[in-house]
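Progress narrative, Year 2. Work on UDP-N-acetylenolpyruvoylglucosamine reductase from Chryseobacterium koreense CCUG 49689 advanced from sequence curation to structure prediction during this period.
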Amino acid sequence: MTILENFSLKNHNTFGVDVSAKYFAEVSSFEELRETLNYSKSQALPTLFLGGGSNILFTKDYEGLVIQLNLKGISEEVLNEEEVLVTAKAGENWHEFVQYCLAKNYGGLENLSLIPGNVGTSPMQNIGAYGTEIKDTFDSCQVLNLETLEMEEFDREKCRFGYRDSIFKQEGRGKYVIVEVTFKLTIKDHVIKTEYGAIQNELKKMGVQNPTIQDVSKAVIHIRQSKLPDPKVIGNAGSFFKNPSIPLSQFLEVQKQHPEIPHYPNGDLVKVPAGWLIEQCGWKGRQIGNVASHELQALVIVNKTGSATGKEIFDFSAMIIDSVKEKFGIELEREVNII
Ligand SMILES: Cc1cc2nc3c(=O)[nH]c(=O)nc-3n(C[C@H](O)[C@H](O)[C@H](O)COP(=O)(O)OP(=O)(O)OC[C@H]3O[C@@H](n4cnc5c(N)ncnc54)[C@H](O)[C@@H]3O)c2cc1C
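Result:
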């Protein structure tokens, strides 16, 4: 176990915020993980787990131990002619894992291609894109209980998945570390989901009439590359806010003032695109100091100059929340984990 001191996290968060961790350790095995946790307990250090750093905003230096989970490995168990269980350790890169499954012609994750981050973090906010969420194919995950240091299994019900949400973001936050995740994928008769977003248009452009799961993945990759900023080029964490769902009565009031407001039914509630609300408040492409709202997607906040502090980014997000609240009476909620 190697514990580094005053470690820069600039290359470990996709915002590229220049903060440091008082202590930092990279763990590659369960034994190392337990050993490192025993050490942090003995020193009474606050502990933070880090995957790819693509959904986190550090607003200050971290005065504890940051543990980068580097557990690797993928295994499979064929259940029958139609289904396979595929298990990946927490430190596997998400997109590479999706591509691994596609190379084996296992279906179910193709719409989630090119989402940054690691497999171990995917249940945290039930990652989703293009009409799919991991809860659709999630079988179970193994977690280490940080109090008892015992392993526990969480099935789908226990994870309490919601829109960009799970038990791990709520009362389970800071209580468990996810060490591996198992998905139940299809071996044949794949369900092809092309109705969401621009997938059908993209497939047409690609000249594909009867798409395979691999075609869907390629279409999703093209779309994402054309509209989302690459964190390697400009610091960001994808969508900064969740799309709010509001009661029908509140929606009807807002709609009276803004008849053109886009909306989707969501059970008893009405979902409104946060990007549209932000754009209507004049934020799209707007820059203040080192921070801006992205010119193609107002929902994405970017470290425009590369020199933004986490506090500046946080303050920028607070201004957006205030102006959306003032104009529409709708409270935006941050999707990104604020540290
Ligand atoms: C360009 C871009 C596009 C994106 N698009 C999408 C999208 O389409 N859909 C979507 O859902 N998300 C999207 N995201 C957000 C992000 O990719 C996902 O939330 C991803 O799952 C984060 O993974 P990570 O490993 O980088 O998490 P990190 O940022 O490292 O961690 C996120 C949180 O999880 C905790 N954590 C990390 N690992 C573990 C673990 N093993 N056990 C317990 N807690 C842990 C951390 O402490 C932190 O609080 C996007 C981000 C970017 C930059």
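Residues 235-338 form a domain with the Uridine Diphospho-n-acetylenolpyruvylglucosamine Reductase; domain 1 fold (CATH 3.90.78.10). The chain has three domains: 4-69, 74-227, 235-338.
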